[in-house]
Here is the input.
Amino acid sequence: MKNRQVARVFNEIANLLEIKGENPFRVRAYRRAAQNIEGLSKDVAEISPEELRKIPGIGEDLAQKIAEIARTGTIRLYEQLKSEVPQGLSLLLQVPGLGPKTAKLLYEKLGVKSVQELEALAREHKLRGLPGIQAKTEENILKGIQMLKRSKERQPLGKVLPLAQDLMEHLGRAAPVKKLCVAGSLRRAKETIKDIDLLATSEEPMAVMNAFVHLPHVREVLLKGPTKSSVVLEEGIQVDLRVVEEDSFGAALAYFTGSKAHNIRIREMALKAGLKVNEYGIFDERGKKLGGAREEDVYRLLGLPYIPPELREDRGEIEAALEGRLPRLLELQDILGDLHVHSRYSDGSHRLPELVQAARDRGYAYIAITDHSKGLGVAKGLTAERLMEQIREIEALNRKLRGFRVLTGVEVDIRSDYTLDLPDEVLARLDVVNASIHSGFRQSREQLTRRLVSAMKNPYVNIIAHPTGRLLGERDAYELDIQEVLRTAKETSTALEINAYPMRLDLNDTHARMAKEMGIPLVISTDTHLLAQYEFMHYGVSIARRAWLRKEDILNSLPLKALLQALRRKRPQRATTR
Here is the structure.
């Protein structure tokens, strides 16, 4: 898909414009366009100019630029800006958290032209003394550089999975493959991915390999052979493709899905049973092949039920399988609604009827409109008066709807002074109150923990949204006493969100499993700002599956009446939503 390429160019244009001190509204226009393009499920190269102009934030000028990037890979404005801004300065902007103004200061005052130079100066404490740069700033710059290094080694699931799906679609059209599947950490839905593993069967393996090394995304061919080839994509990620025999496909899929620790446990069990398991199949002591065409063969012949890929991390799944305790994991179709949706009242891109229709098309029974509260000015946050206006529109809309309900809600800001951005009498009018932190990320562990704890103790807060505040590859989770957060969530019957936006995936699988084991309610929501982002729900479900979550553990798998009862449980008895 060309979407990522267009988004990258637009984001870099925004950075370059900001360095040059251009109009901030123009900068924001490019950033918003990049976000909306990256969130599309359809390739921009296949969208007509008329359709492009219907995308929020895309007018005639940007539509023409998108078409040009999709066709040529660049545009005149981008090349012109790159010629006007020193390359070293633009390279510094790769460091997460290092804004254009600071990058420009470092370049002009110290002549910093590379990330390596920046790291050396920060470690030697030679940045201090420049305007606005103190010891803490140096520490944060070093953290950003480490995050940049990690992001080059492992990329977020939400960036890699669409790439893999696009590769498989192209390969399926270009080559005579019979079966084609992802394996490795991508199939296990880990939140970050080092490389892509593909597994295929074919009667013409060399024809498959010839097509594979010439796919559109390929930048470099590392290896080309009759059964295995490896390439590097333009995005810098390696892809390994193996073609195996039909009667070994299941065994190979299990083997190359991993994890390494899970595979070791499986091989140990096989040895104790006098069997041998490898990527070719499962064999008895005499070398007779007992199975391997189907992945289930490996588990069945070891006396185990099928273990879903997301659980294969040697975190108790073998023991649970032996004891008949494997959970029936949550499925995407179990989700009945989305409880974190933004509209044009704040920073969303669509009006309420559009959001409702798209949700109904997905088979949902309800959504909650949770626009930002007034404290988040950059997102056009709602005052109490504008929120009341929205409530009236939602009530009028609900009177026309049959078999679907729009829940009133808000994403209320948890302020640095531990208070909420809206008064209780306003929150009491709402069906859903998501509370979240959007500023002060560098406060102490104690302060940030106290902010979440104080919000959960409010009787009208139903859910803590994206609890750790991370953005994969851009911002680490802020420091929290997660045990204290979980204890308070349990004591106050406050739900915690698995935010399915692919750059968040917050809570992560480890914390979500801890919450489940403590009996804390969880929700999975998309933080939708664009209709196409409803599709992100599957990322949240993947994280939930890695956390061993069942349908029963997720509030928005409940029918509407049961959901409303659960949401109102912590409220004072006299309080109602209307």
About this structure: The chain has a mean pLDDT of 92.
